[in-house]
């Protein structure tokens, strides 16, 4: 029995040593960054700087969505190089004449420190040689972006994770995209109040898309027991009820690195696919926004894959 415990302790020590930059075990138990404080910062930033509005859009347009690139300095990815999948994804969007912008649904980094966020920011920079348009890419925080005190780096490089993007079309339609911070496995009271206020104006918009990192369902065999961030059940029910009451067009999420679609109480929830370096067939989702919102998945095609 003594040898058994020695083996277990040794295995745990090895795990902690090899994963020290990638797996914040204390941070999974005790939040290093408080949701309420972050959301206050995000909303204060929005008040001071405004929220994005895209004018003169076509009545039907495309929005790209992907998630979980999990950048690490140890991956040795050269920003905007042949192995930089986020750059490739953004380049496809910026070269699509029907697309307005892209979304990045959380877990930008996968280790502690500033370097991964520098890499993500560099991947998003406009490349005039290979990209036709300089469309924005709108991110939200994921649970890995709250580990290792990384929220400070997300804040420095991307400023907010609780905000809206309004699209106004040439015929006078308005669509609303609502971005949320669920990186602690909760949206928190301040953010839920903010969300409810935004949705109180739902009748002013043709479509409304809500974007948040943490997936709400555990219905597929390969992640039913995953110990990852998920909303408390009472908050999950309140959130989903809010989606249904306001006839939200689509809820876009990430977190589990796979394609998934669920219908609940009249609302479609979709899990966007991931750009992680270890994924054999990385892909992304394309939303078609017109009289209603449709979506499809597309594989990321690159000579480097």
Molecular structure report:
The chain is of the alpha/beta class and 305 residues long. It has 2 domains: 1-25, no CATH class; 31-299, 4-Layer Sandwich (Purple Acid Phosphatase, chain A, domain 2), CATH 3.60.21.10. Helices cover 29% and strands 22% of the residues. The chain has 8 helices and 12 strands. The protein has a 7-stranded mixed beta sheet. Strands 4-3-2-11-12 form a 5-stranded mixed beta sheet, with helices on one face. α4 links the parallel β2 (61-66) and β3. 40% of the residues are buried.
State the CATH class of the largest domain. Alpha Beta
Strand order of the largest sheet: 1-5-6-7-8-10-9
Q: What is the strand tally? A: 12
Helix content: 25-40%
Query: Structural class, judged by helices and strands?
Result: alpha/beta
Mean pLDDT: 85
Low-confidence parts, pLDDT < 50 over ≥5 residues? 1-21, 24-29
CA-based shape: globular
CATH homologous superfamily placement of the largest domain: Metallo-dependent phosphatases
Distance between the termini: 47 Å
How much strand? 15-25%
CATH fold name of the largest domain = Purple Acid Phosphatase, chain A, domain 2
Order of helices and strands: HHHEEHEHEHEEHEHEEEEE
Let me know the largest β-sheet: 7 strands, mixed
Total domain count: 2
How many DSSP helices?
8
């Amino acid at each position: 029995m003594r040898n058994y415990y020695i083996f277990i302790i040794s295995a745990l020590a090895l795990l902690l040593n090899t994963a020290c930059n990638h797996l914040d075990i204390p941070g999974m138990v005790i939040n290093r960054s408080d949701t309420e404080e972050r959301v206050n910062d995000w909303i204060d930033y929005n008040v001071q700087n405004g929220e994005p509005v895209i004018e003169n859009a076509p009545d039907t347009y495309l929005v790209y969505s992907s998630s979980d690139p999990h950048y690490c300095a140890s991956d040795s990815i050269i920003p905007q190089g042949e192995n930089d999948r986020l750059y490739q994804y953004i380049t496809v969007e910026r070269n699509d004449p029907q697309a307005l912008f892209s979304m990045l649904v959380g877990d930008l980094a996968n280790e502690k420190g500033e370097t991964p966020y520098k890499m993500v920011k560099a991947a998003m920079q406009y490349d005039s040689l290979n990209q036709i348009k300089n469309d924005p890419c709108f991110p939200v925080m994921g649970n890995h972006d709250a580990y290792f005190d990384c929220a400070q780096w997300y804040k420095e490089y991307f400023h907010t994770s609780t905000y809206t993007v309004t699209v106004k079309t040439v015929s006078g339609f308005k669509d609303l995209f609502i971005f949320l911070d669920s990186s602690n496995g909760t949206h928190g009271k301040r953010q839920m109040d903010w969300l409810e206020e935004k949705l109180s104006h739902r009748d002013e918009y043709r479509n409304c898309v809500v974007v948040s990192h943490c997936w709400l369902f555990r219905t597929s065999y390969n992640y039913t027991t995953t110990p990852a961030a998920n909303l408390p059940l009472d908050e999950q029910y309140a959130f989903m009820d809010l989606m249904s009451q306001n006839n939200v067009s689509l809820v876009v999420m990430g977190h589990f690195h796979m394609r998934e679609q669920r219908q609940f109480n009249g609302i479609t929830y979709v899990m966007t696919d991931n750009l992680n370096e270890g994924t054999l067939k990385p892909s992304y989702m394309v939303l078609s926004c017109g009289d209603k919102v449709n979506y499809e998945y597309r594989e990321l095609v690159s000579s480097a894959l």
